[in-house]
Amino acid sequence: MKKSILILLAFILLLSFTACGNKKEEMPQNPSSENQGTPMTPNDNNQVASGTLGETMRNVFLENSGGSIQEIADAAIKNDAIKFMGSTAPVEAGSLAGFKAEITGFDEAVMFAPNISSIPFIGYVFKVSENPDAFAKKLSENADPRWNICTEAEETIVETKDDKVFFVMCPREISE
Q1: Residue 48: burial class (beta carbons within 10 Å; 0-12, 13-18, 19+)
Q2: How far is residue 120's CA from residue 134's CA, in Å, rounded to a whole number?
Q3: Distance between alpha carbon 137 and the CA centroid of its chain, in Å?
Q4: 118-140 residue pLDDT tens
Q5: Partners of 66 in the β-ladder
Q6: What is the CA radius of gyration of the chain?
Q7: Engineering a disulfide at 56: which of 37, 81, 130, 151 sits with its beta carbon 3.0 to 4.6 angstroms away?
Q8: Could you tell me if residue 138 is left (phi over 0), alpha (psi between -120 and 50 degrees) or otherwise beta?
Q9: 25-78 pLDDT, tens per residue?
């Protein structure tokens, strides 16, 4: 009986390694991974391709930037490009999903993300009263596209508008 259980556990372990090791479809290099530390802007030479999920999320931010950070996060997670069940939640300074270091220096923030953690998608809207551009740079420098086990975000988007900073790491597209 013990031997059967050990064989079953070894088989499950082997399956989990196989799932994480599957070669994904070859995608172009993530522009932000080559240029970590530089917030991407519409005029940046490394701009993400038009029509990607990251670009759509950036546009949602810019279109809703006059609202509260909660309203912006709600608009992002409810966008038609999002093909998963998602939710929003306020966050406090400290260890935030998607970053290599603690994130501090903001007044308030809301996270938006899928309810299922196997999708490499995480987004934040921050309200920053002092130097939003420097804060955006700090986010870019500390972004970790492989924060999620067995997956990697393909795009990192950081955008500022007035006292708001938008951050999202995501795949280029999400299929249904």
Answers
A1: buried
A2: 25
A3: 15
A4: 788 899 999 999 999 999 999 99
A5: none
A6: 18
A7: 81
A8: alpha
A9: 333 333 333 333 333 333 333 344 468 888 989 999 999 999 999 999 999 988
